[in-house]
Amino acid sequence: MQECLTNIIKHSGAKKAQIEIFAPNDRLYVVSISDDGMGFDTSGVNSGFGLSTIHERAAILNAKVRIISREGRGTRVILEVPYEQN
Hints:
Elements: H1 2-12, E1 17-25, E2 28-35, H2 51-60, E3 64-70, E4 74-82
Antiparallel strand pairs: 1-2, 2-4, 3-4
């Protein structure tokens, strides 16, 4: 989450950002971070803008990452984090 927020501040030009955290079931948490910034071309999604760091940190949590962005229309990063009960 920290890297996503840093990217919004440094690169997006966003006026508004939103964080949502919810649990659609008892085995998964979903974190959605979105902004109304300039967006970017996702074809090079693993490079630049700290995106590789986002993927690395998600891997530590065994989480899935989806990045949805359109130039001029903002960006949304969705992390699906499995919840492991002990």
